[in-house]
Amino acid sequence: MGVKSTFVFLLELYKREIASAFEYRFNFIAQTVGMLLNDMFWLVFWYIFFGKFGSINGWQFKEIILLNAILAGSWGLTVSLFANWKDIAKFIENGSLDYYLTLPKNVLLHLLVKMQYSGFGDLLYGLGLAFFVVPKSKILIFAVLFLSAAMTILGFGILLGSLTFYFKYFEQIARTAREVFLTFAFYPFSIYSGFTRFFLLFIIPAGFVGGISVEILISFSLKWFLIQILASIFFLSFSVWFFYHGLKRYESGNVIAMRG
Amino acid sequence: MVLSVSKYFTLAFVDFREKFYYFGAQLFHAFFICVIIFIFFNIWKAIYAQKAVIEGFTFAQMLWYVAVAEVIVFCSDLRWIETVSDEIKTGVIGITLLKPMSYVLSRFALFLGNFFYKFIVVGVVAFFLALILAGPIDASILSIVLSFFSIILGVMLNFVIVVSLGFLAFWLEETSAIFWIYQKSIFILGGMLLPLDIYPDWIKGWIINLPFAYMVYKPAKLMIQFNFNDFLITLAWQFGWLILFTVVLYFVYTVGIKRVQINGG
Fold it and tell me: Looking at residue B79, what DSSP letter applies?
């Protein structure tokens, strides 16, 4: 598929997703607002924590707000637009990938596109926080880091899901690994040191979806800024390649399913 | 006949035994709890570098508190809100009504079977990790048994609230938002991540006697710092909340169940 036809295809897919969101508007609003409130609970937690202890290895409440802005926002962006990245393992495991293979379209892109309404709650939360804490002079840097974090999340998700091509029953492990990834990313990056820090940057790239971004925003480092961008491009490109490489091993599940 | 205890006991036991076929899956969950304990180990290590005791908790007690609280919440399976609401939306509840057993009690049996199974598998792994990272803490067999009794009451309290919230699916199309907010209430107001002693007095005053605290904070603290007086007070509050929410559950169920429509099939 060419770039133009891919763009038209994506546009059509999103038109349908938006039409569906309007049809189920109560669900859309309930999930968006529900997730927004859910996220705000964390602010209360961190407010209490830092109110009591002041800082953890140099991280204060301000750093945590920035972390929430980038992590929740970029997570929300991927879930709002490409929610199926979380279910790639399930698609492969139960054979429902067959549907996407029968159409003359970009398999991975088609598979990924789905709007999960709760993602908009995360996105609103992240951008809302950014509005209050990111200074005007750093908006461009924030935007680049934000997109780069979203690319890393997407790349890591595709990579995890694609491992199902090789290990067959991998869905449970992929889900746990995703939760571990998010959990590591969610806490102050300053608590990790030595091998843990290396592990969270280059094995499970949790550090690149929050911790490093916050440190760059607080104290700009061109070296780490470039490393973060290159790492996200690498993770996403490698995961796409890995998906198609694994796809050659895919065996149809002969599944018969209804698609509404 | 519907209230005969033995069938529910059998149901809980069968579910408990069946879960062992998925032993590997539970170990992954245990791994996740270990990650959280590891993260809090790092957080508390940084905080305790400046102080030996914080609000009456030593470093070891704090880490054990996190481990116990995490295990309680994980094994209580808050997702039963979605399980019950899915059973309403998909019509499974209609099939269950045909059986000579109470829907609520049968779910309670499954819930308890699930709790004990998870507590054994995940609890052992989590407590072993806490032991390695923080070392042992003082506790007698009696204090552990009595605290565990309080944990069970907290778990029962959680069940009646969770099922009542799940029953809101009789009226609402979408219940996942309720699940998220309830889950975070348990995390923050229940003291899963931090003992409520850390909270400022004005917040603590508001939340200390809410049901969330009696599901997590109070039982977990009893396990770490047992005090017979606190145990009796905790039990009294737990029974009070349990009675109140059982009445709420009964009311929501009897009103909601009239909305079930069964069209043969």
Answer: T
